[in-house]
Amino acid sequence: MARITGVNIPDNKNAVISLSYIYGIGPKNSLKILKQANISPNEKIKNLSEEQIEKIRQIIAKNYKVEGDLRLEVSQNIKRLKEIGSYRGTRHAKNLPVRGQRTRTNARTKRGKRVTVGSGRKKTAEKT
């Protein structure tokens, strides 16, 4: 397995797909990287030479913010939104959808498992 920016990349997949295993690199960015490195997108990672892999590493290191640095930046942005008290920050803090989605019915992945709430009336003890 090739290792780029601390991520093990699958050998038996096309280069475009394999590069998208890196956090911060999607299909479009992986195509750009491969074009800069003069590598065919359909080439398998196991067929690349060590020089080609090193060229990919250098392009990513020079032009892209990936993995730990990107995760840190995203978390700092969310922390900043919470500190300034913006609407988006409060939505992040309450663990609710941030981008205007409805919450009355959907948003299960963000809000968690459904919790059934009683009707508000407790059953009274049996009369003796």
TrEMBL record:
Instruction: Quote any Pfam family the record assigns.
Output: Ribosomal_S13
Q: Where is this region: Disordered?
A: 85-128
Gene3D superfamilies assigned: 1.10.8.50, 30s ribosomal protein s13, domain 2
Q: Does the keyword Ribonucleoprotein apply?
A: yes
Judging by the UniProt lineage, the source's domain of life is Bacteria
**Quaternary structure annotation from Swiss-Prot or TrEMBL:** Part of the 30S ribosomal subunit. Forms a loose heterodimer with protein S19. Forms two bridges to the 50S subunit in the 70S ribosome.
Q: Which protein are we looking at?
A: Small ribosomal subunit protein uS13
Supply the gene name: rpsM
